Predict the 3D structure of the following.
Amino acid sequence: MDCAIVRGALPNEISHRNAGPPEFCVNAPEKLPLPDTQSMVDSRRLAIDRVGIKGLRYPLALAGREGAVQHTVAEFTMDVGLPHDVKGTHMSRFVEILEGVRAPLDLPGFRQLHRRMISHLGARTGSIELRFPYFIRKAAPVSGVESLLDYGAAWIATTAADGRHRLTIELRAPVTSLCPCSKKISDYGAHNQRSQITLRVEVDDGELGLDELARVAEEEASSELYGLLKRPDEKFVTERAYDNPKFVEDLVRDIALRLRDDPRVGHFTVASENFESIHNHSAYAEISGIGAALRD
């Protein structure tokens, strides 16, 4: 219900009748003329680079292709820059921004959400980061049986002091890697392991979907993973990995070549961590580069 304010018999007495929870009433300054401490002047002359909220979990609907919608739960970090002469930001306004999201979110909508936050907070700089599990339905390579596979995903939007807006998407994809050296020196077999590939890509123009990044990572791995496999599928992925050995260095280089030639990609970083099956430590590699969107 709306926050109803009723004046009683005593002067300046205010009571709430048929009111909703208190949080629906606190952001009604025209009805509750309370002092705005955050907007007071600060005399220390120290600007704050980032101030806001983090660790906020909120339900999120993602707009996919052909009208598909995926429901997930995201963890939000939202912040703005604070001028040197302002005491504090208005923390409640960050959550107000999320409460205004009704339609499923896509990348253009996320860009608008970020600009709306900057405007609503009266800021020049700021960022929104949301991290969430993302699911892709995959068909097994031989039997065709379908199942979901989960990935770690993130969208990050920032506005810098120079006014430039940046949109970055991140995907953590699990894959299989098989060691070329082990295969070369062994009479039979080769050690293989699950690897996690992290792609962090600045989208300079157009849209770049999470599904597309997943395909790039999986196609350049020794083999991809599936949530459900039958025996013919297990045989296929085992032999696929054996026929396609990759060092951790190969993984990041081959993916970097794909991203470097994409006209939608600006700056990017590719990392791979191989959870070694013959060691109690991981093998790791990382490479950064510039995509075709920023190259002459």
Remarks:
- Residues 107-120 form the longest helix (14 residues).
